[in-house]
DNA sequence: TGGTTTGGTCTGTTCATCGAACCAAATGCA
DNA sequence: TGCATTTGGTTCGATGAACAGACCAAACCA
């Protein structure tokens, strides 16, 4: 972890977290992994990020135990339990960002499978449970702009998709 | 907002959020504001950040409606409701970072005033309510290192303190 | 009113990211 | 099986962000 992203003089859990997930692109990489993206090229094409930065970020996430490389050769990247614990952060940032920039018209919605939509506290509006991400389905919301991107991941995410399930791109 | 921190090609609430709070130091500034720090020099001394960066971050937070300059001359910085909505993110990052780097010995704990300690879901372990930050008291935890810093803010935070209340530094 | 403190602003240096080029390794197919 | 293609990097120069120090304007207070 480079010195330019650390906070050695902050005795604080937030600083410890930001040292790992605070760098540019990292949380968006994790977002994509929650959405089921598994392959380097899919991540790269969906994020439009330089391959050098993506490679460096993935290495760090693997080294710190947030991602796991599965399989030899063209590996698949999967979230660990530690990373999955960050889901509420991502959900809240998604909702907060949508509320500020597209009030009442979220770009993406999240649903407790077979139940209700998730509210601001991450709980199902129907049963009040805060479901595990694997029991969450994500859908394109009314505020989404389907014309902005057409990479394979963006196209696949036009359909509802269960979090943590591998996203199949053509 | 500079181009190097934006994600114009991401149609995503998380990207919108990160465009505002994803820059280095921003979330720590907001953390300090939750802890009741109000003045430029206290922020600067507690964060050990260059004054140019702090000034730039504060300007952006004010411009985007997350902070409010109160008073003329030597202004005071106060969180807006929009910013206060980010409290669960900060709480979760604090807990996640502490759990990973100091398991069982958090550097800082948060308590529902007159009730119980807050758990991982931000709810009071006694009454199960997720209290508003103004009803939360923060205390130094068993994992804190009181020798790391001795700026006025760090010294003041050795005592329990209510979130959002102005932190008085000598 | 003058000295001190606070809150900036400016600038050269260092580090991170970007974008393109190059290449090694893996995959797929005839 | 060998070759073409794809995938997953690595390298490098240009650009932008952060840092550290110096300077200074504005505010405060005795």
TrEMBL record, chains A, B:
UniProt cross-references to InterPro entries, sorted A to Z: HTH_HxlR, WH-like_DNA-bd_sf, WH_DNA-bd_sf
Top-level taxon of the source organism: Bacteria
Biased composition (Basic and acidic residues): 133-142
Name under which the protein is recorded: Helix-turn-helix transcriptional regulator
Annotated spans, Disordered: 133-160
Keyword Transcription regulation: yes
Key words, A-Z: DNA-binding, Transcription, Transcription regulation
Segments forming domain HTH hxlR-type: 12-105
UniProt key word Transcription: yes
């Amino acid at each position: 972890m480079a010195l330019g992203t650390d906070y050695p003089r902050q005795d604080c859990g937030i600083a410890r977290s930001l040292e790992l997930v605070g760098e540019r692109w990292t949380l968006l990489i994790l977002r994509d992994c929650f959405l089921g993206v598994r392959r380097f090229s899919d991540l790269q094409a969906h994020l439009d990020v330089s391959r050098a930065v993506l490679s460096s970020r993935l290495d760090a996430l693997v080294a710190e135990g947030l991602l796991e490389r599965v399989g030899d050769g063209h590996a698949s990247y999967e979230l660990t339990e530690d990373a999955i614990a960050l889901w509420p952060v991502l959900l809240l940032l998604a909702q907060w960002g949508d509320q500020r920039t597209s009030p009442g018209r979220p770009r993406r919605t999240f649903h407790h499978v077979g139940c209700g939509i998730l509210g601001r506290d991450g709980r199902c509006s129907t049963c009040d449970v805060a479901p595990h991400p694997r029991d969450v389905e994500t859908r394109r919301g009314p505020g989404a702009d389907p014309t902005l991107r057409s990479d394979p991941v963006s196209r696949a995410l036009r359909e509802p998709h269960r979090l943590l399930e591998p996203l199949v791109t053509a």
